[in-house]
């Protein structure tokens, strides 16, 4: 697993050493973003989220996903780091830790799936399954 992390981080190095934080996020894509799932407390704010993860490196953005109707936390959020090394270190260290009285689980965020909204996917009826005949 450690070898995989080394290979993964070597592919995510910026091409220009004088890149800004925004350019680094663009170049490295989703590898600098963490998904914090299943356990974010209702009392956790974006600021406490950012403060908890900032000891691992420069946090570009920290957001707790909230319900639109009542404003309460949905129990998950995202943290974006300036470098992939910081994100990997934070993922390893914060996974299974307690934040605001609840255990959180941290993983690298997966890219959003793109759907073509112009044309729906047509699906036909399921194919019939022939019953098994025991002899």
Shape by Cα distribution: elongated
How are helices and strands ordered from N to C? Answer: HHEHEEHEEE
Question: How many beta-strand runs?
Answer: 6
Strand content: 15-25%
Distance, first to last CA:
50 Å
H/I helix tally = 4
Strand order of the largest sheet: 2-3-1-6
Helix content estimate: 25-40%
Structural overview:
There is one protein chain. The protein is an alpha+beta fold and 135 residues long. Helices cover 27% and strands 22% of the residues. It has helices at 2-11, 21-28, 46-53, 84-94; strands at 33-37, 59-66, 73-81, 98-99, 102-103, 105-108. The chain has a 4-stranded antiparallel β-sheet with strand order 2-3-1-6, with helices on one face. A two-stranded antiparallel ribbon has the order 4-5. The chain starts with a helix and ends in a 27-residue tail after the last strand.
């Amino acid at each position: 697993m450690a070898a995989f992390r080394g290979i993964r981080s070597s592919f995510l190095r910026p091409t220009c050493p004088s890149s800004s934080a925004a350019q680094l996020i663009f170049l490295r894509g989703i590898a600098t973003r963490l998904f914090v799932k299943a356990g974010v407390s209702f009392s956790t704010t974006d600021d406490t989220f950012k403060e908890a993860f900032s000891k691992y490196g420069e946090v570009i953005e920290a957001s707790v996903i909230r319900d639109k109707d009542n404003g309460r936390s949905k129990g998950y959020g995202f943290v974006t780091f300036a470098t992939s090394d910081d994100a990997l270190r934070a993922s390893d260290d914060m996974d299974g830790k307690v934040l605001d009285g609840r255990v959180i689980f941290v993983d690298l965020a997966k890219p959003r799936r793109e759907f073509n909204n112009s044309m729906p996917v047509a699906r036909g009826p399921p194919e019939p399954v022939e019953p098994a005949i025991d002899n």
